[in-house]
C-alpha cells in the first residue's frame, strides 16, 4: 500500500496523514468513502449467518434488551417491527468480499485489525448511546443512519440494563450517513447511531489488548518454554531452625524471582510467543485440509489466516518459523500482500516451496 497516496476511502488524505492527524485522536467523517457502494452481504445472507452456532451474533431490541445468538430465522423480530438491531460479529471470516473491504484498512498493522461487524436495523433501531474501547470505522452500507457523537468526559453508564448505555449522553455533532459514507471514531468517543428506515452498517474494528491480558497470555505461553528450569529445585542447606514457622524464607522469595526472570530472559522466546499469540486464529475457525502434491502457480492467504512476522520469525495461525535471507523475504512479502504471484514464487527455495505446500494442504492458503 502506498501510504503517502491520497485515498478516496479517507476523504482524499493519505494513510500517513490519517494516522498522524486522526488515528486515536479525533473523528473523521468521509462522505462517499466508497462511491456507488453496493452492499456486500444481503439481508437474507446476514440472517442466515446469525442462525449459525459458530457465528457470534446479538440482538438488541429497544429499549435495550440484549439477546445472544444463534438466531434461527423465526427467532428474529418481524421486519415490520421497529427499533431492533441484529449485530453479526466477524463477518470477514465468512465472506471474501467483506474480508477484502477490511483489507483496505491495512495501513494499520494486522496486529491491530480485528474484524468486521455488520449490523442490520429496522427504523429507529440502535444500541443506544455508548462508547467503545477501540477505534472504529463505521461504514454505511445500506440505507441511512443518523449518528450523534460527542467527546465527553462523563462516561458513567445506566445501571440495570444489559448493554453499556451512557447515562448522560451529550452529543456535539450530528450526521446522517448515506450508503458509501463512513465515520471514524477514536476509542472512548461517545456515539449513538439510529437507523433512519431499514439500514446496514459495517464496523471495521480494532483490537487493543490490555497489559493484563497480554501478561496473562504470554506468561502462560512462556511457562511452556521452560523445561530446562524444571530440573532446578529449590535447595536450602543453610536453612536454620525457625521459631516463626509461618514466615516465608527470603531465599525462597529470591529463588522464585530468579525463576520468573529466567523465564522472561530470552528476548527471542518472548518475541516468538507474542507472534504466536497474535496470529492465533479466531475461535470457531477451522481450515479445510487438502492433499495437493504440487504447489499452485500463485498463492493467496485464506481470509481466515492470520500471518505476521518480526525480525527473526514468520508467524502464521499460531505457529512460528525462524527464517532468514531470500526465504524470509518471500514469506514477509506473502504476509504483507496476503498473496504471491507466479513471478514471486519462481525463485523460491525448495524449503520455502515445501513449507507453502504444507500451508496449502492445511487450508491456510487459497487454491483457485
Ligand atoms: C451499530 O452498528 O449499530 C453499532 C455500532 C457501534 O456503535 O459501534
Ligand atoms: Co460503538
Short description:
The protein has 368 residues and is of the alpha+beta class. The chain is built from ten helices and 15 strands.
Explain what this protein looks like in three dimensions.
This protein has ten helices and 15 strands. Strand 2 and strand 3 form a beta hairpin. Helix 4 crosses helix 7. The protein is globular and about 80 Å long. The chain starts with 14 loop residues before the first helix and ends with a strand. The structure holds succinic acid (SIN) and cobalt (II) ion (CO).
What structural category characterises the helix and strand content? alpha+beta
> Which CATH C-level class of the largest domain is it?
Mainly Beta
How far the N terminus sits from the C terminus, by CA atoms, comes to 24 Å
The biggest beta sheet is recorded as: 9 strands, antiparallel
- CATH architecture classification name of the largest domain: Sandwich
Total number of helices? 10
Which percent bin holds the helix content?
25-40%
Layout: helices, strands, pairs:
Blueprint: H1 15-21, E1 28-30, H2 43-50, E2 57-61, E3 65-68, E4 84-88, H3 96-103, E5 113-121, E6 136-150, E7 173-177, E8 182-185, E9 190-206, H4 211-223, H5 227-230, H6 250-265, H7 267-278, E10 299-301, E11 307-309, E12 313-316, E13 319-322, H8 325-337, E14 339-340, H9 342-346, H10 350-362, E15 365-366
Antiparallel strand pairs: 1-8, 2-3, 2-4, 4-5, 5-9, 6-7, 6-8, 6-9, 10-14, 10-15, 11-12, 12-13
The chain binds succinic acid and cobalt (II) ion (CO).
